[in-house]
Design goal:
By secondary structure, this protein is an alpha+beta fold. The chain has five helices and 14 strands. A six-stranded antiparallel beta sheet has the order 2-9-3-6-7-8, with no helix packed on it. Strands 10-1-11 form a three-stranded antiparallel beta sheet, with no helix packed on it. It starts with 25 loop residues before the first strand and ends with a strand.
Length: 336
């Protein structure tokens, strides 16, 4: 039987109280990553073996981690401690550990010299999520990142170094079977293998993306009996979790970065998230098909099946400029 996930209907009609929200409703694609057997190389998924051409070099990070990681305390001792605490990420990654520790000491090199391998994080097919808006002639999206902290001061961002690839899958005749792995990494940035279960659901803008005057009215309304104890930000606004859609669930102040080519604001492409709900938002956004709650207690980390932990609140946003050739990609705002 095909898996499915269904977002519960909204607990109340927010547009009955704030009609100006009605035209701001958008369709979100909630991706719902869930662990299971690994899909084939050409399938939509988190982690695992990607549909990567055998004749194309696998990306290697050339950033000097030694220049950035001390600022985030990503030294050898911390890396070993994290590895020991988390244990093997999965069977495919088990070789990276020896007795619960990293297999070898960090070997930082100067910037410009390739060293650690990137890891495949998300692969999406146009057949599964056409809403991503694939470039003409492409039907496959791939997100890879270096699983170590990098500083991106222009975006006020700390986190993995991201790369995005758009491909036409029919042109790949031979897949790179032995895809390199990084021996030094932050375990929080190493994904578990997951299948996606895309679901289309309607949502509204994040509270902080609304005009200030409307924000204040909504906050006042939440204190009344009409709100029935629901909170716009947790239950009625933007859908949380890994998603595609215009209504971004912002962790910090909303900000659309400028395109590095044309300097115009880019649009949201994809959110990579640590979890799908928390101890409050589960009342609305926890899918109906999820197993019963243990003793009625919600999962505080909201089914982080992909195993990715991005800071203390945990979103990374990808943006795209469709006006420019090559579709430059930027990313920003990890709350850490």
């Amino acid at each position: 039987m095909m898996q499915k996930r269904t977002t519960p209907p909204p607990p109340l009609d927010i547009t009955a109280f704030f009609p100006e929200l009605a035209p701001l409703a958008r369709r979100a694609v909630r991706l719902h990553p869930r662990r299971g057997s690994e899909p084939g190389p050409g399938k939509s998924k988190v982690g695992g073996t990607f549909l990567w051409p055998a004749n194309e070099p696998w990306p290697m990070c050339s950033v000097g981690h030694a220049q950035t990681e001390p600022r985030r305390k990503q030294d050898a001792e911390l890396l070993r401690g994290e590895a020991g605490a988390w244990g093997p990420v999965n069977e495919r990654n088990r070789e990276w550990y020896v007795n619960g520790f990293l297999s070898r000491e960090p070997d930082p090199r100067p910037a410009g010299q390739p060293h650690g391998a990137y890891v495949g994080v998300i692969q999406l097919r146009a057949a599964d999520v056409p809403e991503l808006g694939f470039p003409e002639g492409c039907d496959l999206f791939q997100l890879l990142w270096c699983p170590r902290d990098h500083g991106h001061e222009e975006y006020s961002y700390w986190g993995p170094e991201c790369r995005v690839y758009w491909r036409q899958s029919s042109t790949i005749s031979e897949v790179l079977k032995e895809q390199p792995v990084s021996t030094i990494f932050n375990p929080d940035y190493m994904p578990q293998v997951c299948q996606f279960i895309p679901e289309r659901a309607q949502d509204y803008p994040d509270i902080f993306a609304l005009p200030k005057e409307l924000q204040y009215r909504i906050w006042s309304w939440q204190e009344t009996e009409a709100a029935q104890g629901y909170i716009y930000g947790s239950h009625l606004g933007a859908a949380p979790g890994m998603k595609i859609g215009d209504n971004v669930e912002w962790i910090q102040d909303p900000w659309l970065p400028p395109c590095p080519s044309c300097q115009q604001e880019m649009e949201h492409l994809l959110t990579v998230a640590s979890c799908e709900w928390d101890g409050e938002s589960f009342r609305r956004w926890r899918p109906l098909e999820e197993p019963p709650l243990a003793h009625g207690v919600p999962l505080q980390n909201g089914h982080a099946d992909a195993g990715i932990v991005l800071g203390d609140a945990g979103n990374i946003y990808l943006f795209v400029c469709r006006r420019c050739p090559g579709w430059p990609i930027a990313y920003t705002l990890q709350c850490s």
